[in-house]
Structure formats: structure tokens, C-alpha cells
């Protein structure tokens, strides 16, 4: 009985640590087209299929168009955020090619805790 309980506790700890790791802050800073990060910075096209590791990431297929709204900076500079239809999330910059630049100058701002939320129906996961 004790061994079964130990295995359950170990599985719970592993599950919790994987959850914490997948929702950690990816960068303290990001670059945007305006201080509120509301303006699209560019329009890009996917050069490869991409399936992200968790719900914070944008999944797409080769050839799909994505609007870019921010780029992480200082840490994880290869991750950009963008939207495709109603979907929004992070994706690697090397999985896309820039089709059109929409802003001339980038502004660096602090990220917010809400930048790293996972949206599942009506629930928010950090």
C-alpha cells in the first residue's frame, strides 16, 4: 500500500513540475509596434508546419498567413506572437517568412503576466 502511495505522489510531483515548466515566463521583455502592443507589426507566411508544445503557442500549416503583434526580446528572441484567424499565440520566427512590414519602428516594453496565459474555453491557466 505504501509503495502505491509513493508512486502516486511521484506522478503528482512530475505532473506538477511539467505544468509549472510549460507556463513559465518566456521573457521579461518584448518588442511591439506601439506601447500597448495592439498594432500589427508585420504579415508573415508559414514556411513549415508548426505544432506548439502547449496552448500558449500558435499552430499552423505551411502557407498560412499570420499577423505578428510582438516579438520576445533579450530572452527567447526567436519567439514571436501573432494571430491566424481567431487563434493567437507564440511561434518560432524561423518557421515563417516576412511578407509585409507594417510598422517602421519597434518599441521595447515589459511583458505582463497575462502575456503567458493559456486560454481554455472559460478558464485561464498560468
TrEMBL record:
The SH3 domain covers: 39-101
Keyword line: Coiled coil, Endoplasmic reticulum, Glycoprotein, SH3 domain, Signal
What subcellular compartments does it reside in?
Endoplasmic reticulum membrane
Principal location: endoplasmic reticulum
Matching entries from InterPro entries are given as: cTAGE_MIA/OTOR, SH3-like_dom_sf, SH3_domain
Topology of this chain in the membrane: Single-pass membrane protein
Which superkingdom heads the taxonomic lineage of this protein's source? Eukaryota
> Might you report a single GO cellular component term?
endoplasmic reticulum membrane
**Gene3D superfamilies registered for this protein in UniProt:** SH3 Domains
Q: Which PROSITE patterns match?
A: SH3
Q: Where is the signal peptide?
A: 1-22
A Pfam family this chain is assigned to = SH3_2
**Can you name this protein?**
MIA2 protein
**Species of the source:** Machaerirhynchus nigripectus
